[in-house]
Structure formats: structure tokens, C-alpha cells
Write a structure and sequence with these properties.
heterodimer; A: 998 residues; mainly beta; Methylamine Dehydrogenase, Chain H; 5-stranded mixed β-sheet; B: 346 residues; alpha+beta; Ubiquitin-like (UB roll); Pdz3 Domain; 7-stranded antiparallel β-sheet; 8 helices; 14 strands; 19% helix
Chain lengths: 998, 346
């Protein structure tokens, strides 16, 4: 009823709200969905990835990230950095060119679109006349050469993107200077490649699709030399000294050509089909890298024997007698080689191969023996198996953090020790305020532990629950075990593996106690595992217990999946979290809620049939409670997807998750006709959509009743030490909320620590509340006498929280999908409430208590509820008075899986999936904000284009500087830059002068 | 018994004072009574608040004839508030005194023994083309029984006629509550749900709102069939209809009327303590300051909700920034099925 006292505009509160709350989408973690183009600047040491939705993302040293979005949302086809500039050009599939710049603003660099441009042909010419197929930014930084489908090469001035018509190179002009007998007009159709001579900027190499290659002299506007390839051309690559170049072809061959001024029409030096003699697929890109010892690295994409390995996505590296074909898990978009960028250096000396595949980024260390992969600090492939749930733990104690890292490092021994080779830019963001873990559960039964403290979401440790169970797939069945003589020498790289052996292994709920290191994990087939962190490998037996949640119900038959078979006898577990007990729910329905109390050593779990409490100290089931309504046949019989309302949303989310897999699978089969398949898919989707729109959409209006399906579905479980029976004695309690709006409260008796093993834990039902509106209960919380939420177990013991107020009266907050209600305790009577659905038509999807600190004063903070609704809005609601503070639109309401994937942190941040592979991070707090803040400076350029190579220590020195210098740094950027790159002493001097000047 | 006394016509005072005076004059200080009077048309009309009291005094010519009935054995049918006639006549929710003595008097029991199923409310404040229907789901076994769909309607806007998206009733389930009332029909456009406008909301949102309010659903519709609309200012609606009309500020035709009335009524959660019997959760006592803030308290009995509430009061509710409160006075022995509590309105 307080709702009617409309909040008057209290100016003090309004001001405070501004100091507390602020909504920002800060950074995208993970791997970009549907990447379509890759670019790299050896000068800036930055990598750029373009996507099919028109996004462009730049990555450098860990923490250095930029993002831009093309307004058109068209596929990015090509990305080219302007040599020695903080600029890049993108080509979209609508044939538009966009010039982007990194500019410093407010102390940090920003990526901005400067110009856009679409090439226009003469009136009446076909669109193919201006369809750009190849882009060459000239080293003079003044012009771009644009090769087109018609064979014409246009010259565009930078940065204005104006066509210089008098410099256009037409096929006619080229043909005039080539002997007639060799070529016709047709041989100059479609420019496939444009490459500048590495030593002579006045010469460019033009490769036409039909095989003709022309070395064009820009100065004299004539062909210096021409080369007649017999095969359809795919790409060209210059050798470092400019004496030779290499061309790769559609038939899987590559050819070396000599360049000399006296031979107008050169013959090939060497023509090789590396995976011949049988027909091979095209080699679409090739690198020829020279080394000091004379043995070159030949690195190329594709070229596999068409019949037997035509479906592989490979990049081959040949170095003398060493040859490996890296076999990728998904289509390779593009790749580049990191090599010595110093033009004065005599050899390329490649250090790393960076390959962008459709679903992941793979970096291969070419300097270490065996060419191991490098563990990327960002662009993690979150979806290597589909994410099924996530759990966030803030403020991890250092001890646990180190133990998890050490467990993870033992898993990563096969990675190269090479420092991350893409290290451009400087991260100037303040260090993350705390150590945060994001745990993701996956369909294949793994849990991945991510360092979510900062801008780079980094994999720390991977836990697999598969070992506990007997699955159809033999874990020793390794696709990689190829014999020595195997040809081609394929080697699988990457972690993307969306094919789950058994969907029952899927992880549904995770609960980690950061103080004790206990972890509870629950899955699709009703399995609940309790684990403990162990720093050593161990072999032990996992205890089993069954929890029959249908206890007194007779005559029902479960028609869903069977429970997982467990492995008998001791199981070997690697260092890390090792399961010691398995509780199997019967029927083996998906576990829908989970809670762990590490102090009481209890784990509670719920399914659509009921819930149970397990004592993992004594390894004894304490009790089970069946929440089923007798008429609820659907819940009894089978998996969730049979229910209508849930069915729809689940199906939608699954379809979304699987879409990328399906498309990649199809593409694999179709090979070269990938775009056709996509088009067909898009058309199909559209048709389906239209069909849906035609069907009359109507909704039934009916009050919920106790007989509705899945009312027994346990949505939330909560442990609290509170006043359940009377106001003088508090006791441990377990609370459960169901889909039908029922809340059960159980009074627990946990023996004191010294008799913990001797006496059983007892439980007794104390209360049952039926909310009359019968909406699903999604959250239960007890507020102490000061209206503060009760602390987590062991939080007080670790001095990280004030002990709860046990003097004043406690309150119970029940959050249903439709309402927030506060009740008094121990006598439950309704105190106040906030109706959400009745007034706004939206429903609560996620709710968490979050602590908000003021950005103005350090000593003020308050607890509020952060709520995500089914419309994708985020609302902040005050405690304990349940007043709406602020509302932000966050996720599109159509993005069902995005909304379902959202997790809030305890300090007003959150994550949700914007694609199967990417988390968007957002912040509601003014105080806790993790976002990229970085500077990309122009490295020093000497007259002969000499580029300084920054070393790690210099980078470190630079990193420390901005904090001290702040604003001044920008003005003196050039000076500083120079100094920093050369000497640390100079840096200190400059700093001291700057400080003196201030 | 018959008493005769005088009042200062120019200063009638407040209803409460008058009520106190009546109790005093009749020497029945602790007996709840219903007060009625006969207006110039000979209709028996109730006096239960300041407005109709003032109206009664001002129309007295020169005598004001007052009828007092003991509440327990009051003949409510005299006021025509029963729910039975409502189904037959959409106009009967406007105060319609049953003054036709020639009509055979149907003896029906007191309204407490009936449960309202549906009603048309706020006729006096809504445009004639709209209809606000209240469905009482609570306690009925019948399903609400209707479906809604997306559609579009033509509106007059500053830019001329425009097609705007709207929500429409698409189907009535035979035998459902919606159908049995006869107040809702297929293709009626839904304008509001429990006082919240639906324009700009999606079909799913409106569905959720209706389901969340399903225990006491108030839908404002623009009926597809506009022929059964209330025709106002006609004599048939009785003098009271006219009087409310005249007291209505003309500029605020589309305000929330009775909507606050049903709040809280649907919210009595059931709690089982230990293994005891189910019981309704008692409301925590309202804070005293909220009561003090009320300058005027009127107790309206549930049966007076439909039409007895003068519209001037409703307007007052609204203009005072919707500071209105209601709470339930626990009534012993009331069945939980009768959910409407006593209301305090400012």
C-alpha cells in the first residue's frame, strides 16, 4: 500500500542516485560472432577483426581494445591498415569503403570513422565495373589502389577518399603494353591481387584472376614486366628483397617468379603442387618468409587434396623438411604472419602465425620447436562447447585465486611460453579493483573458470565432470594420433568443439564458495557433484547417493532421459576441483536450483519434482520434499521441453545457440559456395518469419491455478540463519521457492562443529507460504535487523562482512516473477510489496542483491536489488522499501537467450551473451566500472621508415607513467614517447619536471 | 419510529456529524444504520457521504425525508444494488433505485450472500464510447475465458486519421466468465488494464498484465458494437445519474475511477505455520502517520462500490496526486471469498 505514496522528488535522494547508479555497456568479452575479415598493422602491432554484422574490433596488448560499428551493419570484407599510420580502411559487402582513425581524446585513444566512400563508375556502366576486389594502401600514405571486377584499378586519394581519375589504370592501358598474342581483353578481368614492390614504391604488382600478372610502373605508367600464369590466380606475395614473388592458384599450386628489368616476359622459376599429384583445392593465400639460415618458411592456406581432405580447413607451414598442416575446427577466414617489421632487416624471421577461424583465433609460435600454440589472453572462444549456465563470484581471496591459477597452469603445459606477439598500444586503465571469477557451465559437462576482473576475459582453469561418468565416447579416442608417415601431416589446433557426446552431461547450475573452495555443480540428468579444491593429482572413489524426489508418489513413470552411468572404482582426477560426492536425483530431471552452505556442509538441490538437502560432511541425505501437484503429469513424464510456455523460449534459445554450428557445418559441406548457402539460409529464415507473421497470434487470458503444469518446479533455494520459529532463537533454515508461487521453509538443526560427524543434521518443515498470485518464485532473501541482506556463509568468519544483526527483527523478501514482497519474521505477515507485472506488463527474469558505492564519498554504500525483466530492462529497486530507483533498457526483448544468460555481480555489474561466443559486460555502478582505456601512439618513424621495436620492459615503463602524469602526458606525448622508447632514466627526469611544473 | 428535527440549510455540516446527530436523535449510538432519503423524483437514495448529504439537503423542498434502516436487516434491494439485475441491464450499475412500486418485488437475499461476478464501472467518468468492465475471478470456478490479439484501429490524431496498433479481444471461451457477463465481445478494443493504458505495450506485455491482475481484472474496452452504449442525461438513468453528472468537472473525462478500490483485495497469501491450518496472512498494521495524513475518512461498504461512490470524490483522489490509501479492517467471520475490504479514500 505504500506504493500509493508516490515518491516525491526528494532532491537529496535524487542527487545520491546520480552518485550511485549509472548504466554503461563497457566491453565485449569473448570471440566476435561471425568474423569475416582480418587485418594487421606491423607498425602499430594491432590486429583488426571485422564481422558480418559490420562491427570492427581492434586488439593489441592485453587490455588494448577498440570497437567500431559500421552504420550499415554490412559484412566487413577486407581490412587494411594504412602503412605507418593510426588509420585503417574497411571494405564492406555493399562496396563501400570506410576510413577509420585512432585519435586521442581525453587521455585515451578512440576509434572513429572519418570518411566513407563508394566507388562510382561512369553512368551506364555495370555495377561490376566498380565492384572492389582488391585494396592496396600505398606506402606513400597518400593513395589507395582499388582493383575491381572489371579489371580497372582506381586510385583514391587519402584521407579525402577522392578518386584521382587521371591515375586510373584501365585494362586497355595494360594490354597496350603487352604483346597481343599472349593476351586478350578477357585476361584482364577481375583484379585478384595488388601488391606493392617491397623496395621500389613506384612499382606495383597486379594479379588478374585469369592468371596474368603485371608489374606496373606507376611513374612511367607502363608495364615493367608481365608474367603469364596458366592457372586461375588466388593471391600474390613478394619476397622481402623484391627479387622474386610467389603466386598461388586455384588448382592448389604455387609458383615462384623472378623479377628483373631485362626480362620483359619471365618464365616461372618453380611450380609446385604441395599436396599433389591428385587434384587439390585452391591455395587462397601464401607467405614466403626468409630466414637467416636460408631455409624459407612457406605458409599457405588451403591446397588440400580435394577428394580425401577437401573438407579440412587448413594452413600449412613448410620449413625445410618440417611440414605441418594445421587443421582448424572451423573455416579459416584469414591469417597473417608476424615477422620482423624492421625494413632494414635482411630477413623476415617469422615469429608467429595468427589465424582467424570462424569460431576461434589460433596463434602458432613458429620460433619454438614443434610449433606450439600460444594461449591467447583475449578473444577466448567461450562457446567451444555451448554455454549452458554462468555463475559469477566477486572478490576472490588471493589464496583461492592462486590455487586455481596453479591448477590451470598444469593444464596449459602444451602451450608456448612465447609472450603474446600482438602487443601494440598501452593499457592505461587502472588495475581491476578486485579479483573476480566468472564460471561458465557447458554442454559437454565442463566448467570453465574465467578471470573476469578486467577487460580481458582470460581462461584460468577448465574443470571436466565427464570423468565421473561412463559415456559412450571413449576419452582415449584421440583424433590427433596420426602416425609419423601420415600425409598430409595434419595437426588439429584450436579448442572449438560444439559436438557434445552426451547432452545429459550439460552443466545447469554452479555454486562456488570462495572461502572454503567447495564447489557444487549440477547437470541435466539430475546429477549433483560436490567438489573440493586439491592442489595435487589424486585417485579416489566418488561417493554416490540417490535422492528419490517422488518418495510418496505412486504410479508415475518418468519418460525422460535416464541417469548417467557412473564409473565404478577409484577415478584419477587431475589437480584442481575434484568431486568427492555425487547425489543423483530420481527421476533424473534437470537440476533447476542449487545452493551450497560451506559452513554447515550442506548442499540443497531442486528439480521439477521437488528438492532435497544433502549433508556432504556425513555424506547423508537429510531430507527430500516432493513439490509436485498430483495432477501435473507433464512434470512427471519428461523433460521440460514438453511444456508449452517453456518449450517456446527454450526452443528459441537452443535454435539460436545452434545456428552458428549448423551454418558452419553446412558451409563445410558446401565448400566454395558458402555464400550461396548463407543466402539460402537467410531466405529461409525470412520466409519462416513471414509465415509466422501471417498466422493469427492470440494469447489466452487465464488466471493461474494450482493445477497448472510445472508448479512444483523448484526455482530457488536459499540458506539463512534467521528467526523461523520465534523471535528469541534463530536457527539455520532452508528456503525453497517453486514455479507455482509456493515458498517452503525448513528449520535445520546442524550439530556443533565438535560433534558434527556424530549427530545427524535434522530438518523440519516450519512454514509454507502460497502466494496468491501464484507467479514463479525467483528469489528469496532474508534481511537482518538493519535491513541488510544476510552475509554469505563463512563471510563473517573471514572478517569480510559485519556479522548480521540478530537483535532486531528479520524480514523475508520473496521475489516472484510478478511482485516483490516483504514479510515479517518469525510470524509471516505481509509488510509491503511492489507489483511489477500488474502495472508494467514485465516479469522478473533475474534478480540479485548488489552493493552500490557512491562515486563521491568512499564511506557510503547501500544494498539494492538489481533486476532484469523479460523486456530486457534493468531496474534497480531499493531495500528494504522496494522503491524503484532507476530503469535502463539493456537487452532487446526479442533476445531471449541474451536475457536468459544474464548474470549480475555483487557490485552492480553484469554479463550477458550477445552471441553464442560473446559476453557483453555492463555496469550499473558509478564506482565499479571495468572498461578498456588505452592509448595507441604513433611509434617513432625515421626517414627511412625505420620502426622502433618496443621491448617488454619499455612497455612496462610506459604503463606506469600515465598514472603519474595524467593530463600533461598528452601534450608532451611526442617528447615522452621518444624518451620512453629510449631510456627509463629520461622518463624519470621528464616526470620529475612535469611534477615540478605542476 | 418517527423523528422530526431541523437543520441549518445553509450550513449542513459534514455527513459524519449528521450521522452522529441521527444516532443521537434516535438514541442508537452504537447501531450501524443505513441512511436514505427521497429525492424530488420520489426515488429512495442513500446518504453515506458528504456529497450526497449536501445534495440531499440542498434539494429538500422544504422537508427532507430521511429513512434509517438498521444495517444488519437493511433491505438492500431498495437501493437496487444487487448483482442479479446487472446482468440483464447494463445500465443498472448506475444508481438505479428500485422505486417502481408497481413492479412485482422480487425477494432476493442480501447482497452479502451474493458474489459479484462482473460489473460496469465508472460510467460517469468515461466517454460514452468506452466501457470499463470488472471481472471478479476470485471464488469463481469459471475460467476467465477470453483471448486477445494484435490489431489496428483508426484514431483521430492531430495529423488526421491514423492507423494505430491496438489490442483486441479475439475469442471468448463458451461458458467462460467473459462470455457469461455479456459485457465483452470479440473485436472489442482493449484500452486499459486495471487503469494502465495498453497503448505502446506488446501483446505479451498486455497478456502478462491481465494474468497478473486476473483475480480482479478491470478492462476498459471500446466495444466493437457501439449501439448498446450508455446514453447519458436521459431521465431513465435516475436523478442520481444526473446529479453526479452535474457535479463532474467537465474537463477530466478520462480519469481513473474505481480502480484503486480493488487493490490489496487479491493478495491474501496463505501461510501454513508449522503443521497448522492454512490461514490468510494478516496485514501488518498500517503505519499511524499514514492515517494521520488523511484529512477525511470515509468508510464505504463493499456493496457501495458500484455507483454509490460519487465522482467528485474520485476526481479528488486524482487531483490530490493519487495519494490514496486503503486498508482492510479485519472483519471477523467474513468468508475469504468476499474479498473486497472496507476502503479508506481521501
Amino acid at each position: 500500500m505504500r506504493r500509493f505514496l508516490r515518491p516525491g522528488h526528494d532532491p537529496v535522494r535524487e542527487r545520491l542516485k546520480r552518485d550511485l547508479f549509472q548504466f554503461n555497456k563497457t566491453v565485449e568479452h569473448g570471440f566476435p560472432h561471425q568474423p569475416s575479415a582480418l587485418g594487421y598493422s606491423p607498425f602499430l602491432r594491432l590486429m583488426a577483426i571485422g564481422t558480418r554484422s559490420g562491427a570492427i574490433k581492434l586488439y593489441g596488448a592485453p587490455g588494448v581494445e577498440f570497437m567500431g560499428l559500421h552504420e550499415e551493419n554490412n559484412t566487413v570484407m577486407q581490412i587494411h591498415f594504412i602503412p605507418d599510420q593510426c588509420q585503417l580502411v574497411t571494405l564492406l559487402d555493399d562496396n563501400s569503403l570506410h576510413l577509420w582513425s585512432l585519435k586521442q581524446h581525453g587521455g585515451a585513444s578512440e576509434l572513429r570513422e572519418e570518411h566513407r566512400f563508394t566507388l562510382k563508375g561512369p553512368p551506364g556502366s555495370p555495377p561490376s565495373a566498380t565492384q572492389v576486389t582488391a585494396v592496396l594502401p600505398h606506402s606513400s600514405r597518400e593513395v589507395l589502389y582499388l582493383g575491381t571486377e572489371s579489371g580497372t584499378i582506381f586510385v583514391v586519394e587519402l584521407p579525402s577518399l577522392r578518386v584521382l581519375e587521371d591515375r586510373t589504370i584501365t585494362p586497355e592501358a595494360v594490354l597496350q603494353r603487352i604483346p597481343e598474342d599472349n593476351c586478350s581483353r578477357r585476361s584482364c578481368e577481375l583484379v585478384e591481387a595488388l601488391q606493392e614492390h617491397p623496395k621500389n614504391p613506384d612499382q606495383i604488382l597486379i594479379g588478374y584472376s585469369r592468371g596474368l600478372i603485371v608489374l606496373w610502373d606507376l611513374q612511367n605508367n607502363k608495364a615493367a614486366q608481365h608474367f603469364l600464369g596458366s592457372q586461375q590466380l588466388e593471391n600474390l606475395y613478394w619476397q622481402r628483397d623484391g627479387s622474386k614473388f610467389i603466386s598461388c592458384h586455384y588448382d592448389g599450386s604455387y609458383t615462384q617468379w623472378p623479377v628483373s628489368s631485362d626480362n620483359r616476359q619471365a618464365e616461372p622459376l618453380e611450380n609446385t603442387v604441395p599436396y599433389g599429384p591428385f587434384p587439390c583445392k585452391a591455395i587462397s593465400k601464401i607467405y614466403w618468409q626468409t630466414t637467416k639460415n636460408g631455409v624459407p618458411y612457406i605458409i599457405f592456406q588451403g591446397g588440400m587434396p580435394r577428394a580425401s581432405y577437401g573438407d579440412r580447413h587448413s594452413i600449412s607451414v613448410i620449413h625445410g623438411s618440417q611440414q605441418t598442416a594445421f587443421d582448424f575446427t572451423s573455416r579459416v577466414i584469414d591469417f597473417f604472419i608476424i615477422f620482423s617489421s624492421d625494413p632494414a632487416a635482411e630477413f623476415d624471421d617469422p615469429s608467429a602465425l595468427v589465424a582467424l577461424a570462424e569460431e576461434e583465433l589460433v596463434v602458432i609460435d613458429l620460433k619454438s620447436a614443434g610449433w606450439p600454440a600460444v594461449h591467447p589472453p583475449y578473444l577466448a572462444s567461450l562457446h567451444c562447447s555451448a554455454i549452458t549456465c554462468s555463475h559469477h563470484v566477486s572478490n576472490i581471496p588471493l589464496k583461492l585465486w592462486e590455487r586455481i591459477i596453479s591448477a590451470g597452469s598444469k593444464q596449459n603445459i602444451h602451450y608456448s611460453s612465447m609472450p603474446w606477439p600482438i602487443d601494440g598500444g598501452t593499457n592505461i586503465a587502472p588495475d581491476p579493483p578486485q579479483r573476480d571469477l566468472l564460471l561458465t557451465g557447458h554442454e559437454d559437462g565442463t566448467v570453465r573458470f574465467w578471470d573476469a576482473s578486467g577487460v580481458c576475459l582470460h581462461l584460468l582453469y577448465k574443470l571436466s565432470t565427464v570423468r565421473v561418468f561412463l559415456t559412450d565416447a571413449d576419452p582415449n579416442d584421440n583424433m590427433n594420433t596420426l602416425g609419423e608417415d601420415e600425409w598430409p601431416p595434419l595437426r588439429k589446433v584450436g579448442t572449438f568443439d560444439p559436438y557434445s557426446d552426451d547432452p545429459r552431461l550439460g552443466i545447469q547450475k554452479i555454486y562456488l564458495c570462495k572461502y572454503s573452495g567447495y564447489l557444487a555443480v549440477a547437470g541435466t540428468a539430475g546429477q549433483v557433484l560436490v567438489m573440493e579444491l586439491n592442489d595435487e593429482d589424486a585417485e579416489h572413489v566418488v561417493d554416490h547417493a540417490e535422492a528419490d524426489l517422488l518418495q510418496d508418489q505412486e504410479g508415475y513413470r518418468w519418460k525422460g532421459h535416464e541417469k548417467l552411468k557412473t564409473r565404478d572404482g577409484p577415478v584419477r582426477f587431475e589437480a584442481g576441483f575434484q568431486p568427492f560426492v555425487l547425489v543423483q536425483c530420481q527421476p533424473p530431471a534437470v537440476v533447476t536450483s542449487l545452493a551450497l552452505h560451506s559452513e554447515w556442509r550442506l548442499v540443497a538441490f531442486g528439480t521439477s519434482h521437488g528438492f532435497g538437502l544433502f549433508d556432504h560432511q556425513q555424506k547423508r541425505l537429510v531430507f527430500v520434499k516432493c513439490t509436485l501437484h498430483p495432477s501435473d503429469q507433464l512434470a512427471l513424464e519428461g523433460p521440460l521441453s514438453r511444456v508449452k510456455s517453456l518449450k517456446k523460449s527454450l526452443r528459441q534459445s537452443f535454435r539460436r545457440i545452434r545456428r552458428s554450428r549448423v551454418s558452419s557445418r553446412k558451409r563445410r559441406g558446401a565448400g566454395g559456395t558458402a555464400s550461396e548457402v548463407q543466402e539460402a539460409n537467410a531466405k529461409f529464415d525470412q520466409d519462416a518469419l513471414q509465415e509466422m507473421e501471417l498466422a493469427p497470434v492470440q494469447r489466452k487470458i487465464e488466471a493461474r491455478s494450482a493445477e497448472d503444469s510445472f508448479t512444483g518446479f523448484v526455482r530457488t533455494l536459499y540458506f539463512a540463519d534467521t528467526f523461523l520459529r520465534d523471535s528469541s532463537r534463530h536457527c539455520p533454515s532452508l528456503w525453497a521457492g517453486t514455479n507455482g508461487g509456493t515458498v517452503y521453509a525448513f528449520c535445520l538443526r546442524v550439530p556443533p562443529a565438535e560433534r558434527r560427524m556424530d549427530e545427524p543434521v535434522r530438518a523440519e518443515q516450519a512454514k509454507e507460504i502460497q502466494l496468491m498470485h501464484r507467479a514463479p518464485v525467483v528469489g528469496i532473501l532474508v534481511l537482518d535487523g538493519r535491513s541488510t541482506p544476510l552475509p554469505e556463509p563463512l563471510e563473517v568468519a573471514h572478517d569480510l562482512s559485519k556479522s548480521p544483526d540478530m537483535q532486531g527483527s528479520h524480514q523475508l523478501l520473496v521475489v516472484s516473477e510478478e511482485q516483490f514482497k516483504v514479510f515479517t519474521l518469525p510470524k509471516v505477515s505481509s509488510k509491503l510489496k511492489l507489483k511489477l507485472t500488474a502495472l508494467e506488463g514485465c516479469r522478473v527474469r533475474k534478480v540479485t542483491v548488489a552493493n552500490f558505492g557512491s562515486c563521491k564519498t568512499d564511506d557510503y554504500s547501500e544494498n539494492d536489488l538489481a533486476v532484469l525483466t523479460n523486456l530486457g530492462d534493468i531496474q534497480i529497486i531499493s531495500l528494504p522499501f522496494l522503491k524503484l530507483q532507476i530503469r535502463y533498457p539493456c537487452i532487446r526483448k526479442e533476445d531471449v537467450s541474451g536475457i536468459a544468460s544474464c548474470v549480475f555481480t555483487k557490485y552492480g555489474q553484469g554479463f550477458y551473451l550477445i552471441s553464442p561466443s560473446e559476453f557483453e559486460r555492463f555496469s550499473l555502478s558509478t564506482k565499479w566500472l571495468v572498461e578498456p582505456r588505452c592509448i595507441v601512439d604513433m611509434p617513432e618513424v625515421t626517414s627511412n621508415n625505420h620502426v622502433h621495436n618496443k621491448s617488454g620492459t619499455e612497455n612496462a615503463a610506459r604503463k606506469s607513467s600515465p598514472d603519474d602524469c595524467g593530463e600533461d602526458e598528452r601534450k608532451s606525448g611526442r617528447l615522452m614517447e621518444h624518451a620512453l622508447l629510449n631510456d627509463e632514466k629520461v622518463l624519470k627526469e621528464i616526470q620529475s619536471t612535469l611534477e615540478g611544473g605542476r | 419510529e418517527f423523528r422530526r428535527f431541523s437543520l441549518e440549510r445553509s450550513k449542513p455540516g459534514k455527513f459524519e456529524e449528521f450521522y452522529g446527530l441521527l444516532q443521537h436523535v434516535h438514541k442508537i449510538p452504537n447501531v450501524d444504520v443505513l441512511v436514505g432519503y427521497t429525492d424530488i423524483h420520489g426515488d429512495l437514495l442513500p446518504i453515506n457521504n458528504d456529497d450526497n448529504y449536501h445534495k440531499a439537503v440542498s434539494t429538500a423542498n422544504p422537508l427532507l425525508r430521511i429513512f434509517i434502516q438498521r444495517k444488519e436487516d437493511a433491505d438492500y434491494s431498495a437501493f437496487g444494488t444487487d448483482t442479479m439485475t446487472r446482468k440483464k441491464n447494463v445500465l443498472s450499475n448506475v444508481l438505479r433505485p428500485d422505486n417502481h412500486k408497481k413492479k412485482p418485488h422480487i425477494v432476493i437475499s442480501m447482497p452479502q450472500d451474493f458474489r459479484p461476478v462482473s460489473s460496469i464501472i465508472d460510467v460517469d467518468i468515461l466517454p460514452e464510447t468506452h466501457r470499463r468492465v470488472r471481472l471478479y475471478k476470485y471464488g469463481t470456478d469459471k475460467p476467465l475465458g477470453f483471448y486477445i490479439r494484435d490489431g489496428s484501429s483508426v484514431r483521430v490524431t492531430p495529423h488526421g486519421l491514423e492507423k494505430v496498433p491496438g489490442i483486441f479481444i479475439s475469442r471468448l471461451v463458451p461458458g467462460g466468465l467473459a462470455q457469461s457477463t455479456g459485457l465483452l465481445a470479440v473485436n472489442d478494443e482493449v484500452l486499459e488494464v486495471n487503469g494502465i493504458e495498453v497503448s505502446g505495450k506488446s501483446l505479451d506485455q498486455v497478456t502478462d498484465m491481465m494474468i497478473a491482475n486476473s483475480r480482479n481484472l478491470i478492462i476498459t474496452v471500446r466495444p466493437a458494437n457501439q449501439r448498446n452504449n450508455v446514453v447519458r442525461n436521459s431521465r431513465t438513468s435516475g436523478s442520481s445519474g444526473q446529479s453526479t453528472e452535474s457535479s463532474l468537472p467537465s474537463s477530466t473525462p478520462n480519469i481513473l475511477g474505481n480502480l484503486q478500490g480493488e487493490e490489496e483485495s487479491d493478495e491474501e497469501d496463505i501461510i501454513i505455520e508449522d503443521s497448522g491450518e492454512p490461514q490468510q496472512i494478516p496485514k501488518a498494521a498500517p503505519t499511524s502517520d499514514s492515517i494521520e495524513s488523511l484529512s477525511q475518512i470515509e468508510l464505504l461498504h463493499e456493496s457501495t462500490q458500484n455507483g454509490f461512490l460519487p465522482s467528485s470524490d474520485m476526481n479528488l483522489n486524482h487531483s490530490a496526486g493519487s495519494i490514496s490509501m486503503e486498508f482492510e479492517v479485519p472483519e471477523q467471520g467474513r468468508k475469504s471469498l468476499e474479498e473486497d475490504g472496507t476502503i479508506i479514500t481521501l
